[in-house]
Write a structure and sequence with these properties.
Order of helices and strands: HHHHHHHHHHHH
Distance between the termini: 13 Å
Shape: globular
CATH topology: Glycosyltransferase
CATH superfamily: Voltage-dependent anion channel
Radius of gyration: 18 Å
Number of strands: 0
Structural class: mainly alpha
Helix content: over 70%
Number of domains: 1
Number of helices: 12
Strand content: under 5%
């Protein structure tokens, strides 16, 4: 296929790569403190994440300049609109990642991510309200515009006051509960998800896992509510691992990167839970999850490169 056509079909889902890599970098940063891991791994991941973010962002900007109608079509698509939240989520995750590397860069990334997240949340929810959407168009990807709100307090705790951050935390938790009901209803009582969106089931883990970290950042305590959020995240992690047969025979799609960010969020939440409570279970769970997330990332990266070389990515669906 000609290169212009490949650019025209460059998907917004590419930002899920940044979400996965930055989440893994953060998990290794926290592991290096708690388990005395080498700092080389998170630093290399941070550099790779930064390079890929700039590359993907430039390619998508060029796509917008050359094929604005294609971008507008994605932005008005009932499913793909949710993946635009990958941009502010990537910025917010990178701000957390850079918190231990360069405070000034982390602050700039946080303000950019927070501002874009605030806009996209309002835009996406108004889009849902104003469109006559079918239940089949809902999927776990709907959590993406919401989970970004819960990320805001993690990187912003040393930048702005808690009252400002509580707005994002409250919006994120409130809509997580509402969407959880809607999406479970869709999955259980309606047609199965399309194969390419099956990996997005892992996004069920992200809101409560990120919510655990965000709540502890806001309160400084691992209390009953933090434990509640953590255990809900743990349940969804165990459920999806129990359902592993649903995923092992999936055809490759770029949406496979949706496996990684939730696993890394759960890893970081487990490390935090161990740090705050001294839980032996969380200690071993965090090590196991870190190994699992790393293996999944390496496998998905291999499959991505393999299919890129075969020019099977960025093609007409």
């Amino acid at each position: 296929m000609k290169e212009p056509a490949r650019l025209e079909n460059f998907p917004i889902m590419m930002f899920s790569i940044i979400m996965g890599l930055s989440g893994l970098s953060i998990a290794y940063q926290k592991a290096s403190h708690l388990f005395h891991f080498t700092r080389i791994i998170p630093n290399v991941l941070a550099g790779l994440t930064s390079f890929l973010f700039v590359t993907i962002a430039i390619i998508y900007i060029v796509k917008y300049l050359k094929y604005p109608d294609e971008v507008k079509q994605e932005f008005s698509h009932p499913v793909r609109i949710n993946f635009f939240a990958g941009i502010p989520i990537s910025l917010l995750l990178m701000s957390i990642m850079y918190g231990e590397i360069n405070v000034q860069a982390a602050t700039v990334l946080w303000w950019m991510g927070m501002s874009l997240q605030a806009y996209l949340t309002l835009h996406t929810i108004s889009f849902w309200i104003n469109r006559n959407l079918e239940i089949q168009s809902s999927s776990p990807a709907w959590f993406l515009p919401i989970v970004g709100n819960v990320l805001v307090p993690i990187g912003g705790i040393d930048i702005v006051n808690r009252d400002f951050l509580m707005y994002f935390f409250a919006v994120g938790i409130f809509f997580w509960v509402l969407l959880l009901t809607i999406i479970l209803n869709r999955i259980i009582f309606h047609k199965l998800l399309a194969q390419k969106f099956m990996p997005t089931l892992f996004i069920f883990i992200a809101p409560p896992a990120v919510g655990t970290i965000s709540y502890v950042k806001l309160t400084g305590e691992f209390d009953l509510f933090a434990s509640f959020l953590f255990n809900i995240a743990l349940f969804f992690t165990l459920l999806l691992l129990f359902m592993y047969k649903n995923f092992i025979k999936l055809e490759f799609f770029i949406s496979w990167w949706a496996f990684i960010f939730p696993l890394t969020a759960m890893t970081t939440a487990a490390i935090l839970a161990h740090h705050m409570t001294g839980s032996v279970f969380c200690y071993y769970a965090s090590i196991g999850l870190l190994i699992l997330a790393t293996c999944v990332m390496l496998f998905v990266a291999y499959k991505t490169i393999y299919h890129m070389l075969r020019k099977e990515i960025c093609v007409i669906e």
